[in-house]
Amino acid sequence: MKADARARLADARVARLATVTAEGSPHLVPCCFVLVGDTVYSAVDGKPKTTLALRRLANIAAHPRASLLVDHYDDDWSTLWWVRVDAAARVVADPGERELALERLTAKYPQYVRTPPPGDVLALDITRWRMWP
Amino acid sequence: MKADARARLADARVARLATVTAEGSPHLVPCCFVLVGDTVYSAVDGKPKTTLALRRLANIAAHPRASLLVDHYDDDWSTLWWVRVDAAARVVADPGERELALERLTAKYPQYVRTPPPGDVLALDITRWRMWP
């Protein structure tokens, strides 16, 4: 199972990231990401959503638990699937790890070649895999 | 803004629902849904994911806050958008409201005609709209 889950997660172009606010409410954003080993990296990019980017970082400072979902939807419901990872979230502090994460993100998303993400890089260290069906 | 957000939410075929577990961790599942006024309805269907369906219901019993996201991804990042609603979540108890919700769900998803969802219906009473860009 995990090999399938890993391939589906690694290949997905977009995921949805859930964190919990300091007040205990769920917070949800779509994000680009790359899977490296058992860690998911995601860059807080330069688009005009600064407040939301900060929210994501404030949330993981308060509650370092995150959940990341990739899924396939089609009106043929026999083809549906999803993969979810629960993780411990942190902002990458180590310059070498940050460089690796940005390299892998840029290899997956050529969009980053022209405009490298200027902000922080989130790391999600996976603690649990779930897939359906 | 809200008219655009409403149309995008109403038209989306799949959304992602975030809740918070009793232990304070985020929980995330894709779901089908229908927007009626300022309430989102989603059925807990009969697929073999009973544990997860129960999890969703246990979560909202412990923490009645939910967040629901619809988004558009394309490798042309100039076309990206998302709409998110934060909501108070509840299981529909009123038989008339349940009937209405199932009618609207079935009108949106013909898949439900053959196999009506046998389980509970979740209601998310929207308290906040957010959209990007």
Give your account of this protein's structure.
The structure is a homodimer of 133-residue chains. With 133 residues, chain A is α+β, with helices and mostly antiparallel strands. The first copy, chain A, is 31% helix and 38% strand. Chain A has four helices and seven strands. A seven-stranded antiparallel sheet of chain A has the order 2-1-5-6-7-4-3, sandwiched between helices. In chain A, a hairpin with a 5-residue loop joins strand 1 and strand 2. The longest helix of chain A has 14 residues, at 95-108. Chain A is globular, with a radius of gyration of 15 Å. Chain A starts with a helix and ends with a strand. The relative contact order of chain A is 0.24. The mean pLDDT of chain A is 90. At the A-B interface, strand 1, strand 2, strand 5 and strand 6 of A face strand 1, strand 2, strand 5 and strand 6 of B.
Question: Summary?
Answer:
2 copies of one chain form a homodimer. The first copy, chain A, is α+β, with helices and mostly antiparallel strands and 133 residues long. Chain A has helices at 2-11, 50-62, 95-108, 111-114; strands at 15-20, 26-31, 34-36, 39-43, 65-72, 81-91, 121-132.
